[in-house]
Amino acid sequence: MQAKSAKVLAVDDRDENLVALTAVLDALPVEVVAVTSGQAALKELLNDEFALILLDVIMPGMDGFETAQHIKGRARTRDVPIIFLTAAGDAGDDAYRGYAAGAVDYLTKPFDPWLLRAKVSVFVDLHRREAEVRRRAELLRRALPSDENVPALLNRQVGQVEAAVARLRAKDAELPLSDVETRLDELRTTVRALLS
């Protein structure tokens, strides 16, 4: 069995919907944290990191739109993707309000479980990759001497790798360099993360 690698926050005022969501996502390497209100969701977000939020629109008290506005208004949670799940139908105004509130998607119930799993998988994978970039950036920060001009040093190293790739291409145009270029792209991403 795969280890649960990321957390997904499921927010719905109906327990049966939360049970169904948890069952649909059980095959994925995620831990579903289920809560029944917007207030409970905001509390969970204070204590933990989530790869994705599945948020019901129609809830008593704080509805999904208001909950999303609070989530997007906090520096710690503003980048967590939100997928709205609603039984309200295909109303264009509600979908527009969902996207305006910061949602990455808006699905109506009943939703296709395969489609939902595919969407969740994409965002969990993105979360995992971002975490890996942050981890590599931190390792690089620790490894570099503190008195070095880090941006200049990293840019110089990227330039050296790019020059080496160009020399290899010049020697043999048929040489498969996709792995080297992939590593170079990873290095560029890490450098950007360090410099931000």
UniProtKB/TrEMBL annotation:
The modification 4-aspartylphosphate is found at residue 56. Residues 7-124 form the Response regulatory domain. Signal peptide: none annotated. The keyword Phosphoprotein applies. Gene3D superfamilies: 3.40.50.2300. Pfam families: Response_reg. The keyword DNA repair does not apply. GO terms for biological process: phosphorelay signal transduction system. It comes from the Bacteria. Keywords: Phosphoprotein. This is Response regulator. It comes from Actinomadura rayongensis.
